[in-house]
Amino acid sequence: MPGERRKVALITGITGQDGSYLTEFLLEKGYEVHGLIRRSSNFNTARLDHLYVDPHNAVKARMKLHYADLSDASSLRRWVDALLPDEVYNLAAQSHVAVSFEIPDYTADVVATGALRLLEAVRCATKPARYYQAGSSEMFGSTPPPQSEASPFHPRSPYAAAKVAAHWYTVNYREAYGLFACNGILFNHESPRRGESFVTRKITRAVGRIRLGLQTKVFLGNLSAARDWGFAGDYVEAMWMMLQQEEPGDYVVATEESHTVEEFLQAAFSYVGLNWKDHVVIDPRYFRPAEVDSLKGDSTKARKALGWKPKVGFQDLVKMMVDHDIETAKREKVLVDAGYIDAQQQP
Fold first, then answer.
1. Which of 40, 228, 303, 330 has the most CB atoms at less than 10 Å from its CB?
2. Residue 82 near residue 127 (C-beta atoms within 8 A)
3. What is the pLDDT of residues 216-239, one digit of tens each?
4. How confident is residue 164, by pLDDT bands cut at 50, 70 and 90?
5. pTM (2 d.p.)
6. Taking the mean position of all CA atoms in its chain, how far away is CA 236?
């Protein structure tokens, strides 16, 4: 309605895979979206470029970006106080499991204590806001599948342990202060926007480059690890649904299907007529110090209480990612053939 105030959402991690899909979703719902980003010497907003409107165009610019950091409590409190959001989505994290073994202190500070800093900013704000905390299936670790909200956590990495802390901080602030705070325990969710160092995107990126003759091998670790893989675009809708309920709660979001890395390889390579065994090399450096063998979610609560269900299945997800990365490889090949870049950076 003309003159009616738009709902305001504040998103940390807006430049990531989930942040970009959530921003699209909320803009379609009519929200005004504000994202907190870290300062970088390089632009890291590629996933948002198609949504960006110069903020000087006040009428059309419904997504705005602000500098802040989960390690800086003052910046979090300043923006929560200034923007007075209706909903806060904490998606930011050092989210790479293997890297968390390399930088455990930083991972804990951003993922665990960062969530605490943001919760405290929301608690102290002059206007109540509903809070979403991005959990992870990695929190279950070695707990046997299927994993539900009632399953015990047994984290197997610094990242997972930090996510468990953030989960319980969220529960504590809900119980102690009455915050409308929800934990979304999202199982693995992928897309063409997934970071290229994550195994699914590493595979589909390699398929595209191998298909175009830019690469011959891809180096991987544990092929028997099983994961419940869904489409990120489906999962951000579940985040929003949680904050629209009458009462806050915690929800597992999953497809309830599990596939191994080897199955992902088979689906991706066979889609373009290749045999993955001709191109995959096992490299011990990609094995984790502590492995998570099998994750498979039980999302009964989310399906019944929220009315949520995944729309994109495993095979369609793989095809979507491979199609995107073949197009990416085609653009790369133009530059290689013209002599602008060297394709021999990988074997």
1. 228
2. no
3. 999 999 999 999 999 999 999 999
4. very high
5. 0.95
6. 9
CA dist., res. 106 & res. 71, Å (int): 9
Q: Which of 74, 178, 71, 162 is nearest to 123 (CA)?
A: 178
Alpha-carbon span 98 to 75, nearest angstrom:
29
pLDDT tens-digit map of 287-336: 999 999 999 999 999 999 999 999 999 999 999 999 999 999 999 999 99
Phi, psi of 166 (to 5 degrees): -60, -40
* pLDDT (tens digit per residue) in 19-52: 999 999 999 999 999 999 998 888 789 999 899 8
CB atoms within 10 A of CB 44: 13
| Tokens, residue 199 | 């195994």
Place of tokens 């133009």: 334
- What residues act catalytically? 136, 138, 159
